[in-house]
Amino acid sequence: MRLAAPGTLTVAADYSYPPFAFRGPDGGLTGFEVELVEAVAKEMKVEARFVNRGAGALMTGLLAHRHDLAASGLRATPTLREEGCVSAPYLGADLGILVPKANPHTVEAATDLAGLTVAVLDGSEAERWALGRLDRSTIASLPATDDLLTALQQERADALVADLPFARFTQERSPAFTLAGRIDTTDGYVFVASKDNGPLIAQVDEAVSKLKGSGVFRKLERRWFG
């Protein structure tokens, strides 16, 4: 197993991607993946260290061995599998439909989005899904998750489609929104190491398996997603 710094698992994440990794009210780093990685590192008997990297720089630093893992709500796309060594999926990566609490358009499933204005994150899996499936809807692609919620609050969008963990996280923490539906995918969230660091991924997979067996993973899931 290769580590950029001995005894330390250096993990790159996008700090602006709730609920996976983001700055809390006190300015400290928090999030579901942050706590999961810390638990994984504890199982591996190393220290976890995070570095802030935008989505476009995650793989660059990984391939240059400036960090050991990339963890930022990543899906195991063919490109990711080609460029890096991918872990087993640790969580299903379905999509969720979020609407205002009153649900004025009575949205209960993806089919109810026809004819509505749907906000999605630019470049996301939700955007790809919406562009491929919602030909009778207006798709509003926005640059940040905060923009999605603002568009919904200001009635510039009737609904938003985003990663299910984000939708669940938002519903748990804000009475203004409700999760109106779930869109099943075959995707899963993964961690990624460099191609030549397969032994690290094997240890990460083993640690996640132990966390699931002990109930720690489930506690984290309930804590962050309800």
Classified by CATH, the class of the largest domain is: Alpha Beta
Distance between the termini: 35 Å
Order of helices and strands: EEEEHEHEHEEEEHEHEHEEHH
Q: In percent, how much strand structure appears in the residues?
A: 25-35%
* Shape call: elongated
Helix/strand/pairing category? alpha/beta
Query: Which residues sit in consecutive blocks of at least 5 with pLDDT less than 50?
Result: none
| Whole-number count of domains | 2
**What would the CATH topology of the largest domain be?**
D-Maltodextrin-Binding Protein, domain 2
Sheet of most strands = 6 strands, mixed
Write the CATH architecture name of the largest domain: 3-Layer(aba) Sandwich
Radius of gyration: 18 Å
**Fraction of residues in H or I helices:** 25-40%
Can you walk through the features of this model?
With 226 residues, the protein is an alpha/beta fold. The chain has two domains: 8-91 and 188-225, D-Maltodextrin-Binding Protein, domain 2 (3-Layer(aba) Sandwich); 94-183, D-Maltodextrin-Binding Protein, domain 2 (3-Layer(aba) Sandwich). 35% of the residues lie in helices and 29% in strands. It has eight helices and 14 strands. The chain has helices at residues 32-44, 58-63, 78-83, 125-133, 145-153, 164-173, 198-214, 216-225, and strands at residues 8-13, 16-17, 21-23, 29-30, 47-52, 69-75, 84-86, 91-92, 95-100, 117-121, 138-142, 159-163, 177-183, 188-194. Strands 1, 5, 6, 7, 8 and 14 form a six-stranded mixed beta sheet that branches. The longest helix has 17 residues, at 198-214. The radius of gyration is 18 Å and the shape is elongated. The model has no long low-confidence stretch (mean pLDDT 95).
